[in-house]
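HUMAN: You are asked to prepare a plain-text protein record giving the amino acid sequence and the backbone structure tokens, both parts labelled.

ASSISTANT:
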Amino acid sequence: MNFQRGRIREEPEINLIPMIDVLLVILIFLMVTTSYAKFSELQINLPQASGEQAGNAANKQIHVAVDSSEQYAINNAHAPFSGVDNFAQALRLAAGTEAEPIIIISADAKATHQSVINIMEAARIAGYGRITFTTQNPAK
């Protein structure tokens, strides 16, 4: 039964403006509270596949080698590893007066990942950012 004759029934409507306002407030909240962190990165020069040798005559090269038993050598001289800070000092001694030497890491194929990271960390502590790795072509 319709007791309200002559009244037009209003259709419900969805008002989009308050919904847009709420979404904008949420978006602004997320933008303000999100923290953008940039992690420190090491600049690593990966070896190229070409047979040409780069001309690095201007900078001194320090050859650091590590084998599978974690024995370290700097410029073919045994260097005991008693901590990253001590190894960084050994790299500084090997560099002499050179401000930005190139650290060339030669690691055994079975050397631990940590031993290579130790060398890279010592180079970072010593202030040397130019690091490269040696590779060997597979035997045919």
Notes: The beta strands are 44-45, 61-66, 72-74, 77-78, 102-107, 131-133. The helical segments are 16-33, 84-95, 113-126.
